[in-house]
Amino acid sequence: MNEYELLDSGNGEKLERFGNVVLRRPCAQAVWRPQKPLLWESAHASFDRSKGLNWHQRKALPSQWTITVEGVRMKLSPTDFGHLGVFPETRKLWKWLRSTITKAQRPVNFLNLFAYSGGATLAAAQAGARCCHLDASKGMVEWARENAVLNDLQDKPIRWIVDDVKKFLRREVRRGRTYDGILLDPPSFGRGKKGELYKIEADLIETLELVRDVLSDAPLFVILTSHTPGFSPIVLQNLLTQLLPPAEVTCGEMILTGAADVFPLPNGNWARWHQA
Questions:
Q1: What is the number of domains present in the chain?
Q2: How far apart are CA 45 and CA 22, in angstroms?
Q3: How far is the C-alpha of 36 from the C-alpha of 188, rounded, in Å?
Q4: Among 54, 76, 98, where does a domain finish?
C-alpha cells in the first residue's frame, strides 16, 4: 500500500500528496512548467526559503499524521527545514531490500547508517532481518522507534544507536561485528552526536572503507544513496567499485512518481553493490 503521490512539478517546486495532505515544496531540478497548474490550489500548505525557512498554511495542516509508504507505516510532521519524516524517493529501495532479504533464506544482519526515520530499517525488519539503526540525532532515532511501534515491530531485533557513524564503525571493526547488508545515506554536511563535523567530500571514502571492514564473509549488498549535487549515479558507482571487493555494481536515480501523465521527478541518486 502507498499513500504517497507526486501530483505535479515545475517552476522550481513539487506538489505532493501524503495521505490526505497536499503540500508544495521547493525542488530546484523541476525547471519545466507545471503540467496541472490548477491543481496547485489544492495544497494545504507550502514551504519556501525566500525569507528564512517558512511554512505557509492555506488549510489546516495537522501537527502530525501517519501514512503508509511501500508497506511501511510512517509518522509525518512538518519540520523547520521543510522535511516531513520520510523521503518517498527511497521507497523502491525499501522494496528491493525486503525482497532481497526474504530471498536470502538465511539470517541477515542489516546496518542502516544515517538512518533518519527508519523506513529502510523497518522494511528490512519486516523481511526478518536483524537490524542496527544508527543516526546522530537522538530525536530522529526516537522518531524511528515510534515508527517501529506503528508497524508492530517494536519487539523485533533492532538495535537503536545514537552516534557518529565513523566512530561507531571503528568500534564495530574492533569488536569483530559484521553485517550482511548495509545502507548508507550520507549528508552533504552534518554533525555527529558530539558535534563531530561530517562533510561528504572529505569523509565518504573513509566511511566506505570502514563499511568494507564490517562486511560479513558472505555479504548480500551495500547501497549508497546521495542527495548531494555532483554525486551522480556514476560517481557513486565508481566509489563502490573502487572501495569494495569485486562484485556487481549498478546505479541510477531516485525518482518521485505519480500518475502516468505526471513527469517523473529525479530526487537523488543511488548505487548498489551486490552479489550477482
A1: 2
A2: 7
A3: 33
A4: 76
